[in-house]
Amino acid sequence: MIMNRKLLNHVLRILLVYLGTALLLFLFVQDSEAKPQLRTVKCDESKMIEVFVRPNFSTIINFPIKPDNVVLGGKNQFAIEYIKNDIALTALSSNSKTNLFVYLFGRRCGFQLMASTQSHDNLILVRDPEETKINVPFK
Fold first, then answer.
1. Cα–Cα distance measured from residue 92 to residue 126, given in angstroms and rounded to the nearest whole number
2. Residues near 60 by Cβ (< 8 Å), separated by ≥ 6?
3. Alpha carbon distances (Å) from 138 to 51, 63, 121, 128
């Protein structure tokens, strides 16, 4: 009887440890999925910025000003919408891939768009690399 009680207590402790671990793992996964994937990038004419778009979901690329012109490479690969300073992109298939060029600040920003079910961007903030520089007038 005492041996059965010790065995039962031991089994209950192991069960509680597994349940607690499973609960923590569940909460961690839920918390990581709830956070939007926000990324800030600099518009650099010499580099293409990779953008991962989840199929059937939108990815927003935000610019500090409304883009002057936008050129989408494969028009049948991604749907595109213009909303003020934002460009909303949706991958039309799970293997969509093309490029996108956005003209602003008198320069060109290049993007490599790729559909991805694994890692994806929800919101990309594009910033001017010159905005952090301070102009000091010389006398």
1. 23
2. 86, 87, 88, 89, 122, 123, 124
3. 41, 31, 43, 24
Reported as a single tens digit per residue, the pLDDT across 5-26 is 777 777 777 766 676 676 666 6
- Note down the domain range covering 9: 1-35
Q: Please, which pLDDT band fits residue 48 given cuts at 50, 70 and 90?
A: very high
Contact assessment for residue 51 and residue 82, using Cβ atoms and an 8 Å cutoff = no
| 45 & 113 share domain | yes
Asked if residue 112 lies in contact with residue 49, where contact means CB atoms within 8 angstroms, the answer is yes
CATH classification of the domain holding 63: 2.60.40.1550
- 114 and 50 within one domain: yes
> Which runs of E-coded beta strand occur in the chain?
38-42, 48-53, 58-62, 69-72, 78-83, 86-91, 97-104, 107-115, 123-127
